[in-house]
């Protein structure tokens, strides 16, 4: 039976399978630390893969799942949103036990209605150690979260998927649900029932291949035999297993994370070989019938394969299930797949872990009259108002901002201004000072002239012919961005980091981890909320510096903010976050601005708003916010300028 409300909007979903790169078995081994305190923390590196499960979901009065895919085995499933009935289905096993397990958990702990989920496509290999069961569990949890606005972060979705699957006969480990993080590697630490997850920034492309060995393994027996050594080792074989999944694994995964961060693929491959050697010597003896794995080792010892790879190892519970290999480059990746399929008769897949696009361009809108700093702005643009920097030099505010971009190695800088304002910038950055003036400068200041000339080489000018709002100004840089992510800064704002890393560099580092449009934000008092765009969401990291945004609202009233936009932290139950004055925006934001300009999607003043474009992108594909360790100072009005002059640089 299929029942769904046709009037309800639907959402599109994709959840990848997952590949454990290092640390297989350490998740359940680490759980045993609750009983045996001497057990070393479990640690794994897990990534989503490019293959996965696709679906479409919408609200319904029932909980139902349908699919015409052969891989789904059963045609459809439908049940009332009744925790007892759903849990009974989960206990029975089979494909739909997973979706029923998660739905029963949601029904028990959340006030929600039903859902219809249609599984539209599946290119994820089943029963290959890639955790297709965890992927469908994550999809159900993710769909409920999106449909009912539950404001769960990624770790929350993972936990629901895990406990939902625990209600089935599957009894998966904690690392399986890492697929919730998408196609990017994460570090997972298992300390009893506690789980820590952190993203790993990929610095250079890693060209993996994984392949179905087209053999067989008994996962149930493998896990049973290995589990017999826990929580306490009773003989030498068990001791060696504890060593392998404990200190040995800690050391190898730690070094592997460092290799990924450094972009050292060759050493990463060597660690794969080392990890497999430890597994063969210390883990396999616990279940030799399954873990001697002749097919796996025939691939690992294949001399042609060795020429194409930096390293290789087994996957998941290991045995003759799946192999993963790290190719030397994209060409050898293709050769490896071709060889495995044509010569070895195996089904092989590519997995390329790529860095998020690096931000090498910055955009700074500086057009504007500076009305609130009149009469100073009759003769001086507000961004040229003087501020004493931390080096003791008196600089125009815009120069302090540009100097920070020079320090963090931004390659191109686009200034958005009116045509008549260009002369001001030409005079300052491109016109050399007189010989008489130069001769009176100190050595330090003469050297600083070189800094100004270097900054000038990076400047490009784009014109805003009509002042139609901040979003309209940013839109003028669409051609300059050329599809790349850009760092967007405000021309009348400068930043003071609390440490050695500039605020803009902090923002770019976090963008590299998450790869989504991102706004830097800062906490403000509730009374100030009506003057700002407010960003609300749920914390993605335990440090409470990264928010997964759920809402962006332009200048809400205090009552609405108090009811719907407050963000809790460990220190304060109610926090309100406004723009810090720095963003990383991608093509998606420029596309929305383009649509707003063409269709005249404007506010009451006839202006195109950036906040509207950000809110649209947040709803459609997600967006993050980051709280820098520092302060922003602006020159927007007399009081703000007074504070900037008195505090900045101290």
Textual characterization of the structure:
By secondary structure, this protein is an alpha+beta fold. The chain folds into three domains: 11-197, Ribosomal Protein S5, domain 2, CATH 3.30.230.10; 206-353, GHMP kinase, C-terminal domain (Alpha-Beta Plaits); 361-647, Spore Coat Polysaccharide Biosynthesis Protein SpsA, Chain A, CATH 3.90.550. Helices cover 38% and strands 24% of the residues. It is built from 23 helices and 24 strands. Strands 1, 2, 3, 4, 5, 6 and 7 form a seven-stranded mixed beta sheet that branches. A five-stranded mixed β-barrel has the order 19-22-20-21-23, surrounded by four helices. It has a four-stranded antiparallel beta sheet with strand order 9-10-8-11. β13 and β14 form a beta hairpin. The protein is globular, with a radius of gyration of 28 Å. It starts with 10 loop residues before the first strand and ends with a helix.
N-to-C terminal Cα separation, in Å?
A: 69 Å
- Give the integer mean of the pLDDT values: 92
What is the helix fraction of residues, given as a range?
25-40%
Q: What is the number of helical segments per DSSP (H or I, 4+ residues)? A: 23
So, CATH architecture of the largest domain? Alpha-Beta Complex
Kindly report the name of the CATH homologous superfamily of the largest domain: Spore Coat Polysaccharide Biosynthesis Protein SpsA, Chain A
Main pleated sheet: 7 strands, mixed
Count of the domains: 3
CATH fold-level topology of the largest domain = Spore Coat Polysaccharide Biosynthesis Protein SpsA, Chain A
CATH class designation of the largest domain = Alpha Beta
Percent of residues in β-strands: 15-25%
Shape: globular
The Rg value, from CA coordinates, equals: 28 Å
Class from helix and strand fractions: alpha+beta
Low-confidence stretches: 1-5
């Amino acid at each position: 039976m299929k029942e769904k409300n046709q009037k309800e909007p639907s959402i599109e979903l994709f959840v990848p399978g997952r590949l454990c790169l290092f640390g297989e078995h350490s998740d359940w081994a680490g759980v045993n630390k609750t009983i045996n305190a001497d057990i070393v923390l479990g640690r794994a590196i897990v990534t989503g893969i490019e293959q996965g499960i696709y679906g479409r979901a919408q609200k319904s009065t029932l909980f139902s799942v349908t699919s015409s895919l052969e891989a789904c085995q059963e045609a459809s499933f439908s049940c009332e949103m009744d925790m007892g009935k759903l849990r009974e289905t989960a206990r029975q096993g089979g494909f739909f036990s997973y979706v029923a397990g998660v739905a029963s958990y949601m029904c028990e702990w959340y006030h929600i209605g039903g859902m219809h989920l249609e599984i539209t496509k599946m290119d994820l290999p089943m029963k290959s150690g890639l955790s297709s069961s965890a992927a469908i569990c994550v999809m159900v949890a993710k769909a409920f979260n999106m449909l009912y606005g539950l404001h769960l972060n990624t770790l929350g979705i993972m936990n629901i998927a895990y406990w939902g699957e625990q209600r089935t006969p599957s009894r998966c480990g904690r690392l399986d649900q890492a697929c919730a993080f998408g196609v990017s590697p994460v570090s997972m630490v298992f300390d009893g029932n506690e789980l820590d997850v952190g993203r790993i920034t990929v610095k250079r492309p890693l060209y993996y291949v994984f392949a179905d060995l087209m053999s067989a393994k008994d996962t149930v027996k493998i896990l049973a035999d290995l589990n017999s050594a826990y929580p306490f080792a009773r003989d030498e074989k068990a001791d060696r297993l504890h060593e392998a999944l404990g200190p040995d694994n800690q050391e190898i995964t730690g070094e592997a994370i460092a290799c990924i961060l450094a972009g050292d693929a060759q050493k990463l491959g060597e660690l794969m070989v080392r990890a497999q050697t430890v597994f063969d010597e210390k883990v396999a003896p616990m279940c030799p019938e399954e873990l001697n794995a002749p097919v796996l080792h025939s691939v690992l010892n294949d001399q042609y394969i060795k020429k194409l790879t930096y390293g290789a190892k087994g996957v998941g519970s290991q045995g003759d299930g799946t192999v993963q290999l790290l190719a030397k480059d994209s060409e050898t990746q293709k050769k490896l797949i071709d060889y495995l399929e044509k010569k070895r008769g195996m089904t092989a897949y590519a997995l390329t872990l790529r860095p998020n696009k690096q931000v090498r361009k910055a955009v700074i809108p500086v057009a504007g009259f500076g009305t609130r700093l009149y009469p100073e702005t009759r003769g001086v643009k507000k961004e040229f108002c003087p501020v004493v920097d931390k080096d003791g030099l008196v600089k125009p505010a815009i120069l302090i901002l540009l100097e920070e971009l020079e320090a963090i190695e931004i390659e191109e800088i686009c200034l958005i201004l009116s045509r008549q304002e260009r002369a001001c910038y030409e005079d300052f950055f491109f016109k050399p000072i007189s010989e008489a003036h130069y001769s009176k400068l100190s050595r330090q200041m003469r050297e600083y002239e070189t800094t100004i000339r270097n900054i000038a080489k990076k400047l490009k000018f784009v014109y805003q012919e009509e002042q139609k709002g901040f979003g309209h100004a940013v839109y003028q840089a669409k051609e300059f961005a050329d599809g790349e992510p850009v760092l967007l800064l405000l021309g009348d704002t400068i930043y003071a980091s609390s440490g050695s890393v500039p605020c803009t560099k902090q923002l770019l580092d976090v963008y590299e981890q998450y790869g989504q449009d991102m706004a830097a934000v800062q906490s403000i008092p509730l009374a100030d909320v009506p003057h700002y765009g407010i960003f609300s969401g749920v914390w993605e990291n335990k440090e409470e510096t990264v928010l997964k945004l759920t809402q962006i609202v332009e200048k809400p009233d205090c009552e609405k903010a108090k009811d719907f936009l407050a963000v809790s932290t460990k220190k304060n139950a109610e926090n309100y976050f406004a723009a810090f004055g720095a963003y990383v925006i991608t093509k998606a934001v420029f596309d929305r601005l383009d649509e707003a300009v063409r269709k005249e999607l404007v506010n009451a003043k006839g202006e195109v708003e950036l906040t509207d474009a950000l809110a649209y992108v947040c709803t459609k594909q997600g967006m993050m916010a980051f709280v820098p360790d520092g302060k922003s100072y602006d020159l927007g009005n007399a009081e703000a300028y007074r504070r900037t002059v008195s505090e900045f640089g101290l």
